[in-house]
Amino acid sequence: MFVGRKRELAYLEERFERGKPELLILYGRRRVGKTELTKEFLRKKRGIYYLAEKLPENLQLKKLSEKVIEFFDEDIITEFSNWEMLFKYLASKHDRYVLVIDEFPYLIEREPGIISSFQKGWDEYLSDSNVFLILTGSSVSVMENSVLSYKSPLYGRRTGQLLLNQFPFNEIGEFFKKKYEFDDLLKIWGTLGGVPFYLEQFDSDLDYYGNVMEKIYNQNEVLFAEAEFLLNEELREPRNYFAILRAISLGKRKLGEIINETGIDKSSIMKYISILNLLGIVEKEVPVGEDPFKSKKGLYRIADNFFRFYFRYVFYYKDLILTDQKERLLSILKDTENQFFSLTYEDFARSAFKWISESNYFEIGRWWDRNAEIDLVGMNREEKRILLGEVKWSERPVGTDILAALHERGNLPRWDEFNEKEYAIFSRSGFTKALVDEAKSDRSLVLFHGDKRIV
């Protein structure tokens, strides 16, 4: 079942309808759905789908040649002896067609010179043809450095690019036919992120804990070893990356704390962290409004939900899974989950405010200093407006004391430049009647119960 991706499909359709030659770059982390998206796009098109493999150049060319000749149903040519012959042949076709080369990095991994052949093929043949060429890649570093960068032979040739991201929270319910309530959906999102392949592994007939037991705490299931598989596939020296991710998952978020926990020296650890950042696994968080390059308050966090859950609840406890002590591990999860998912709920609130708020806030994030912390801050400097929010993943309704504390932090001199202040409170368990009544009479305050605005 193909789910979502309406915007991405619309983009591809719009480019296709132009009728012009296209060289599109589609990339994103592994398992994010690039192959399914291109196959769905091809479903009602004349097109060729080719999955590159880690093979010598001559075998890659041979396999792609066979696909092309089979598609055009011509017996004249049995094989193309070089890339130029292939591109010249493709350019000779008068009817519009799609050619998808999936996992393009595999094609150029062993033979980097192939990318120059593609540049020549595009310049001399395909740029004046009817082809709709899509090159996809899961190695974000290779796609950005070898295909999209200024130094790439293909620089300036692409006609468009599409970075395929994970599904946002408000779309993952489609994978489960909307069977789950907000609490379980948030836990699923905090466990798997928005990666369609991972979401498809969960069984909507099981509750959240049943899925964790059956699909993650099970050495025979793909999710059990997935994080380590991806890191081993993508990186050299994966042990150092494991150590860094484990340290951050334990709450070691300052650079010095990570160095002390891992024993990796500062010069090396920055190289590892920068690569994890490029892969979208780790990010440096600074108080909203501060320059990330100048701020001295930076904290590192695991930005990818699946990796965050894995290194908190699987990597360190694999021996419990391998010795069939899954129930003990489930107890550890239940004992600590409120703290873990409170951060997920904060992430949800910061991302959700972009699509559930009628106000335009262009800087959204968390803010802190030595004396105070605010879960959600949104700023519109041009209009001198600011939003300050509290996010509570607790089992008790939120009362007026929380609002009073939020107002106090909103009155810090730090925010004096803003003429208009708004307040938002997100609560897993709702609100007291007194706070709801106050919100009804205060237009500057909005309340969200779970994912729904109630006032």
Write the layout of secondary structure elements.
Blueprint: H1 6-17, E1 22-27, H2 34-42, E2 47-51, H3 57-72, H4 83-91, E3 97-102, H5 104-109, H6 114-124, E4 131-137, H7 140-148, E5 160-163, H8 182-192, H9 196-201, H10 208-216, H11 222-234, H12 238-249, H13 255-262, H14 266-278, E6 282-285, E7 299-302, H15 305-313, H16 318-322, H17 326-356, E8 363-368, E9 373-380, E10 385-392, H18 400-410, E11 420-427, H19 433-441, E12 445-449, E13 452-453
Parallel strand pairs: 1-4, 1-5, 2-3, 3-4, 10-11, 11-12
Antiparallel strand pairs: 6-7, 8-9, 9-10, 12-13
Helix pairs in contact: 4-6, 8-15, 8-17, 12-13, 12-15
Verbal overview:
This protein is of the alpha/beta class and 455 residues long. The protein has three domains: 6-163, Rossmann fold (3-Layer(aba) Sandwich), CATH 3.40.50; 172-335, Winged helix-like DNA-binding domain superfamily/Winged helix DNA-binding domain (Arc Repressor Mutant, subunit A); 357-453, 3-Layer(aba) Sandwich (Trna Endonuclease, Chain: A, domain 1). Helices cover 46% and strands 16% of the residues. Strands 8-9-10-11-12-13 form a six-stranded mixed β-sheet, with helices on both faces.
